[in-house]
Automatic annotation (TrEMBL):
<dbReference type="InterPro" id="IPR050383">
    <property type="entry name" value="GlyoxalaseI/FosfomycinResist"/>
</dbReference>
<dbReference type="InterPro" id="IPR029068">
    <property type="entry name" value="Glyas_Bleomycin-R_OHBP_Dase"/>
</dbReference>
<protein>
    <submittedName>
        <fullName>VOC family protein</fullName>
    </submittedName>
</protein>
<feature type="domain" description="VOC">
    <location>
        <begin position="13"/>
        <end position="164"/>
    </location>
</feature>
<dbReference type="Pfam" id="PF00903">
    <property type="entry name" value="Glyoxalase"/>
</dbReference>
<dbReference type="InterPro" id="IPR037523">
    <property type="entry name" value="VOC_core"/>
</dbReference>
<dbReference type="InterPro" id="IPR004360">
    <property type="entry name" value="Glyas_Fos-R_dOase_dom"/>
</dbReference>
């Protein structure tokens, strides 16, 4: 599939991604307190239906959370992955959000991994993504195009810190796989 050179819609990135939390106070403590994302806007939904809070995740983008007093419980393996990548099953259901990846500067990547672990956040091993058959190299090499590690927020939402080392731009050598079709 060739990239579109003149898009029909001029998109400027992601305005915000809206997720659902079980406890807004705990969510604010994690996203602002642990990750350092400033709280941008808070909204109280009418008739006691809940809250909607927005956090600045950098680059003009936001991550937002709804809190609904009667939200269903999470369903790991359906609404989100059960495990961190590299540690077990990462499949989630069609229509679910598998994870949120935040871009971090390559020069701070290793320090951020250590800093989150020091704050008591369980972090995955560093994954060096490359074009090998497994898609991950055990060590950094010239073919690694992105490095990442994963962790979960207090509600089990899978998060990723990632840094591009070589950001693909849709060149033919980077777009070589045929999309699969539905099996039903």
């Amino acid at each position: 599939m060739a990239p579109v050179s003149q898009p029909e819609f001029r998109l400027g990135g992601v305005n915000h991604l809206a997720l659902v939390c079980s406890d807004m106070r705990r969510t604010v403590d994690f996203y602002s307190g642990v990750l350092g994302m400033p709280l941008l806007k808070t909204i109280e939904l009418p008739d006691g239906r809940g809250q909607h809070f927005f956090f600045d995740c950098g680059g003009g983008d936001s991550v937002a959370f709804f809190w609904f007093p009667d939200a269903p419980d999470p369903a790991p393996g359906v609404s989100a992955p059960v495990h961190l990548p590299g540690e077990g099953e990462i499949v989630s259901a069609v229509g679910s959000m598998n994870h949120v990846a935040f871009h971090v500067p390559p020069e701070h990547f290793d320090a951020y991994h250590s800093r989150l672990a020091a704050k008591g956040v369980r972090v995955s091993a560093v994954l060096n993504h490359d074009d090998s058959p497994t898609g991950v190299a055990p060590a950094l090499h010239d073919g690694v195009f992105v490095r990442s590690f994963y962790f979960q927020d207090p509600d089990g939402i899978l998060l990723e810190f990632a840094c591009w080392l070589r950001r693909p731009a849709g060149e033919p050598e980077n777009v070589t796989h045929t999309p699969h079709t539905a099996r039903h």
